[in-house]
Prior knowledge:
Helix content is 54%, strand content 6%. It is mainly alpha-helical. It folds into two domains: 4-187 and 297-327, HUPs (Rossmann fold, 3-Layer(aba) Sandwich), CATH 3.40.50.620; 211-291, Orthogonal Bundle (Tyrosyl-Transfer RNA Synthetase). The strands form two sheets. It has a three-stranded parallel beta sheet with strand order 1-2-3. The protein has a two-stranded parallel ribbon with strand order 4-5. The protein is globular. 39% of the residues are buried. ATP binds at residues 9-11, 17-18, 148-150, 187, 195-199. Keywords: Aminoacyl-tRNA synthetase, ATP-binding, Cytoplasm, Ligase, Nucleotide-binding, Protein biosynthesis. L-tryptophan binds at residue 136. One of its GO terms (molecular function) is ATP binding.
Amino acid sequence: MPRVFSGIQPTGDPHIGNYFGAMRNYVRLGEEYGKNSIYCVVDLHAITNPAAYDPKTLAQRTFEMAVANFAAGLDPEKVVFFVQSQVPEHQELSWVFTALTPVGELERMTQYKDKAEQLESIPAGLLMYPVLMAADILLYKADTVPVGEDQTQHIELTRALARKFNHAYGETFPEPKAVYARDALRIPGVDGQGKMSKSKGESSTIGILEPLDSIWQKLRVAPTDPARVRRSDPGDPDKCLIGDYHKLFSDLPTIETVYEGCRTAGIGCVDCKKMLMQGITRELTPLQERAEGLRANPDWVRDALATGARQAREIARPVMEEVREKAGFLKL
């Protein structure tokens, strides 16, 4: 049976890009593969980017990301779910891979170059981010990795490191493949400025735990097809982020109605947004209610994460023992 691994960063509030691009995928694969599905909140990754990391809020954001995943349907009885820093083997394997990774490969990473441009002083951790990600995956000998398309380059590096270690020390790691969420590869930001991203701040995102009134205020002023200057102007819903959101939240009859109404100027953009808000409310209300119940029982959340960390270490320890032996470290 395939072994699944994926991680999610706690550097911002979980948004609909996380939800459709990762979290629902976690639930689906967890139902299929059970305890062979391993997921974690990657708090070690969070500290590599000073533009997004705040030590005063990291613990709370980590907790909230766990709450969001549980509220989205992730069942800790069925999968292994934990916080990355609670399993020290991640750092240990990452260091072994650091010794195998050419600096030039890391400097060519698109995400590194994009984030480095925003910083005066570039921390080494930002450069080494993909090596830690490779260790996260290969520590569990995972062969299936649900990720966003922006992580494809990192998965290719992970595959290369698996080959390199296997060639140097003997067959040890599989070469994992990326699995993308269907129809949710690039969810646009609500500000209309490219992909929805926590790094761009709350103005770009629709949080899955965000109050519905706040979501509506963002949608109300969100840009639409620029061709619709006046209410009577026809538009193209395929060129409108509201049309993209309808594909995520609305049923087929609603999608057909708003698409036809947009193309014929039969409905206005505000009407279209109100119909979208109905779908968002229907999808997010039960999730937010479950999240409130989890926040009211924080001990349950922490116990579930502690159990997940113990289960993860049971898998990780023998893998690291194998790595240490093959790499030639002294065994006492």
